[in-house]
Specification:
- It is a single chain.
- By secondary structure, this protein is of the alpha/beta class.
- Helices cover 33% and strands 14% of the residues.
- The chain has one domain: TIM Barrel (Alpha-Beta Barrel), CATH 3.20.20.
- It has nine helices and eight strands.
- The two termini are 19 Å apart.
Length: 246
Amino acid sequence: MLIETDTHTHTVSSGHAYSTLQENARAAKAAGIRLMAMTDHAPTMPGAPHIWHFGNLKVVPRQIEGVGILRGVEANICDEQGHIDIPDDYLNMLDIVIGSFHEPVFAPSNSAVHTQTLERVIASGKVDIIGHPGNPNFPIDINAVVQAAAQHQVLIELNNSSFISSRRGSESNCTAIAEAARDFGAYITLGSDSHICYTVGQFKECLAILEHVGFPPERLVSTKAEKLLKFLSKRGKTHLSEFNFL
């Protein structure tokens, strides 16, 4: 299956990643990616950039190495009320926002707490994607979270890093999430969660899961750059006309 987008990548600005934006874009082009999201960690993650990093993303070109660049963030879910660590005035500047649990920011609790928190994050309208929801350290009621995402038109991420370098033991959860997304009408996006350029645009493990569960390709926004842009536009993103070159 042809994949044209990668909605989750990190640069050296994240503090524990190892490639520049240009290196990531070059790798994306080699992998056939037409549209890549730059989603460094938000400020409460240890080692993450200052909030000004996200306010200044306007200086990042819309096209690098022939690849369209979405200016984004991987925001941290900070508390059980579903707050994230990016102020609203900054959110309005961004093309794409991932909301994720990270152990240094949100201590793992139990399924009921994680589920209710994600439901609040989804309902807030502040995130476009729920990042790596298959993390076994944060068990959830998969059906409830996926149904909420479908209702509010929030993307569910399949995160390829979860199978090769991070969050080991995610496979069964991710398979169940893909099945629930198939059955409840949710949309899926693929994120490499690359912390080094060599994994940008690499989705072998994600695609195997989607094939295994028979996920409908029309609800995989990663297959066409235009499909992702249309989805984001429906969520009220205002900067997307700048990608007409795609």
